[in-house]
């Protein structure tokens, strides 16, 4: 399918760039990523910064080489919007600010994590030639899945002491209610706007690739 491989690679490169920058001393100052030394610890801060910069530029070059220029422009527009100050980078800016309450951490999660999920879903919708209304719904589905993913990730690390962890700003009961709301919204939008096979495929993805509890989607 035209543009699919390029979009997958573009999203992955942008995500890798965000992780490299996130680990830098000026932001999270992490020594390890996925059990290995972070790039700045192994090769120095300067090289890590430049590597992250390079990885942020590469996705747009890759997408620009798609043979259908109209498709390429649409995909570039989505990724630049969701990775920029209105999305991922905006979330990173909030993350290095003083976090004082639940609303702030929710906004950080929606931008820093949710935005690239939104881009992934929207770009897939554009490639699949879905209607504009369906793509808008995919954007919302992507955001909610991104939020759920971050909540589950924070739950594993809730005792780590990291400031940007939702469990520092809300009770387990409040977070459980939020998870239920997000899941119900995902299911409703999937069932209202897409066919049964679409719902089944995404349900499989959520359970088998993102580790969601299958009982949540019954």
Automatic annotation (TrEMBL):
InterPro entries: Isoprenoid_synthase_dom_sf, Polyprenyl_synt, Polyprenyl_synt_CS
Keywords linked to the UniProt accession: Isoprene biosynthesis, Magnesium, Metal-binding, Transferase
PROSITE patterns tied to this protein: POLYPRENYL_SYNTHASE_1
GO molecular function: metal ion binding; prenyltransferase activity
Cofactors that this protein relies on: Mg(2+)
Any one biological process term the GO annotation gives: isoprenoid biosynthetic process
Family statement drawn from the similarity comment of this UniProt entry: Belongs to the FPP/GGPP synthase family.
Protein name (database record): Geranylgeranyl diphosphate synthase, type II
């Amino acid at each position: 399918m035209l543009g699919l491989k390029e979009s997958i690679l573009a999203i992955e490169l942008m995500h890798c760039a965000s992780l490299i920058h996130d680990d830098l001393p000026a932001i999270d100052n992490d020594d390890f990523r996925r059990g290995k030394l972070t790039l700045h610890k192994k090769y120095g801060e300067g090289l890590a910064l430049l590597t992250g910069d390079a990885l942020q530029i590469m996705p747009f070059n890759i997408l620009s080489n798609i043979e259908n220029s109209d498709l390429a422009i649409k995909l570039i527009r989505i990724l630049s919007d969701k990775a920029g100050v209105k999305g991922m980078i905006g979330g990173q800016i909030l993350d290095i600010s003083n976090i004082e309450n639940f609303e702030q951490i929710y906004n950080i999660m929606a931008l820093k994590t949710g935005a690239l999920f939104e881009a992934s879903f929207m770009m897939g919708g554009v490639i699949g030639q879905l209607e504009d209304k369906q793509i808008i719904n995919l954007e919302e589905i992507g955001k909610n899945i991104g939020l759920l993913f971050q909540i589950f990730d924070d739950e594993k690390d809730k005792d780590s002491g990291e400031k940007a962890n939702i469990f520092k700003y809300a009770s387990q009961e409040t977070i459980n209610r939020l998870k239920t709301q997000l899941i119900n919204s995902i299911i409703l939008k999937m069932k209202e706007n897409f066919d049964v096979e679409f719902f089944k495929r995404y349900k499989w993805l959520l359970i088998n690739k993102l580790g969601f509890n299958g009982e949540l989607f019954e």
